[in-house]
Write a structure and sequence with these properties.
Blueprint: E1 2-10, E2 18-23, E3 26-31, E4 38-50, E5 53-58, H1 77-87, H2 93-109, E6 112-120, H3 127-139, E7 144-150, H4 161-171, E8 175-176, H5 186-203, E9 207-211, H6 221-231, E10 238-242, H7 251-263, E11 267-269, H8 272-278, H9 294-299, E12 303-304, H10 323-333, H11 339-349, H12 351-357, E13 372-375, H13 380-386, E14 390-395, E15 398-402, E16 407-409, E17 418-420
Parallel strand pairs: 1-4, 5-6, 6-7, 7-8, 9-10, 10-11, 11-12
Antiparallel strand pairs: 1-2, 2-3, 4-13, 13-14, 14-15, 16-17
Helix pairs in contact: 2-3, 5-6, 6-7, 10-11
Length: about 425
């Protein structure tokens, strides 16, 4: 007898009519027609069952702070950074914890159970670090939160930035971050990448660096990051986030750069919602949108995942904690509308992100942790189109959140009484 069986599930890889049996917090069997009973059974009714969504790039210290102390009037990246610089000196640990916990509540209802958050280390008080370390411990039963020591104002540019970042790592932050394009000069940016990779190698930590988040085609810190990754033997443990300058780079140079990134096994983390909102602000027309070269990097074998980046903060006044919203936008801006394209996009929200974060026991295979979500959609492609409700969110074999299916009622003579958009309008072509 199992603890829980989820029956009649469609899986992201195309399998259908699958039962998933769970015992002691792990998947004990995943196959058709499991002839056994369980303490609890859930009928997925031929809907999509997926491993949980993962956000590999977020700023939890700033989330839900929209309008404090004022709004970002221009909507630009630089005003957002300046605005955060106004809020940071007056923010308290208590309000940081409260906002972060509220966001984590939202994340759970969205089936988002793994988050990597960058934590600003530019204020020597490190109240942001203290707060997020407390949040990490408090949400541990239901969200795995990874923290990146992030020198928002520049590793060298910020006063006491070097010492503050090292203190954050000593306090228990487990990933080394950076922002080389925000240093005073290109050379300072290069030196910061070298120094930060050296720290990561010495401490045995991963690296996740904001890299070339600019429209400048000559901002080429990703090249340095890839080279330093190889130099220090950090292959597979380094992520380059944003990489928007690659949108504007010369094609010949990119033909050299992508193989170098592949050699270094760089994890690539674009942030579609934020990248297309903030980039190209100095253009008239044609206007660049700043999304990095997703299709080309996927084709080269690079591990590409997508981050939400911001939700209602100084940089982005929108957002919902829904990674399917991120994937939905990625389909459009990357022009990846084919069937296989969409499968790759869905993977970028799940299994690719799990690889980038180094997660163990993640997935829908026997022996994996019983962390799964049931969506009001037939398959991954429909999930990306509809951004459907999460009917059940299961952590360690226990349901921790439910959302009722979205059903529209009709009061029209001769027409159906109700509409289930996740079932009644699924195309038959597969």
């Amino acid at each position: 007898m199992f603890d829980l069986i989820v029956r009649n599930a469609n899986l992201p890889d195309g399998r259908s009519g699958i039962d998933i049996a769970i015992t002691r917090g792990k998947i004990a069997a995943i196959e058709k027609g499991i002839a056994a009973s369980a303490g609890e059974e859930i009928d997925a009714t031929d809907r999509l069952v997926s491993p949980p969504f993962i956000d590999p790039h977020f700023h939890m210290d700033a989330t839900l702070s929209l309008g404090i102390p004022r709004m970002n009037v221009s909507g630009t990246l630089l005003e957002g950074i300046a605005l955060w610089g106004e809020l940071r000196p007056i923010v308290t640990k208590e309000e940081l914890v409260e906002r972060a916990l509220r966001y984590c509540d939202l994340a759970v209802t969205q089936g988002l159970l793994f988050i990597r958050s960058h934590v600003d280390t530019s204020d020597p008080r490190l109240v942001t670090v203290e707060a997020l370390l407390e949040v990490k411990d408090r949400v541990k039963p239901y969200i795995e939160l990874q923290l990146v020591a992030f020198p928002q104002d520049g590793y060298y540019r910020a006063k006491d930035g070097v010492a503050a970042l090292n203190r954050a790592l000593d306090m228990g932050v487990d990933i080394v971050g950076g922002i080389p394009h925000f240093e005073r000069t290109m050379e300072d940016g290069r030196l910061s990448v070298e120094a930060l990779c050296r720290i990561a190698a010495d401490r045995g930590l991963p690296v996740d660096m904001h890299c070339d988040e600019t429209d400048d085609p000559m901002s080429r810190h990703i090249e340095t990051l890839a080279a330093e990754t190889i130099r220090h033997g950090l292959q597979g443990r380094v992520a380059g986030s944003h990489l928007t300058s690659m949108h504007s780079m010369d094609n010949y140079y990119v033909s050299k750069l992508i193989p170098l990134m592949a050699e270094a096994q760089i994890n690539v983390i674009p942030n579609p919602l934020i990248n297309i909102m903030l980039q190209g602000r100095h253009d008239t027309y044609p206007k660049r949108r700043g999304m990095t070269r997703v299709r080309e990097m996927m084709a080269a074998g690079l591990n590409v995942s997508f981050g939400h980046d911001c939700v209602m903060d100084p940089w982005y006044s929108m957002g919902s904690g829904d990674m399917l919203e991120v994937g939905h936008m990625a389909i459009h801006v990357a022009q990846m509308a084919g069937i296989e394209d969409k499968r790759q996009i869905f993977d970028a929200l799940t299994v690719n992100s799990a690889k980038a974060l180094g997660l163990q026991g993640y997935g829908l295979e026997k022996g994996c942790k019983a962390d799964i979500i049931i969506l009001q959609a037939a398959d991954a492609m429909e999930a990306l189109r509809l951004k459907p409700n999460r009917l059940a969110v299961i952590k360690g074999g226990k349901v921790i959140a439910r959302t009722a299916p979205r059903i529209g009622e009709l009061f029209l003579d001769g027409r159906p009484k109700s509409i289930d958009g996740g079932r009644d309008y699924v195309p038959k072509i597969r």
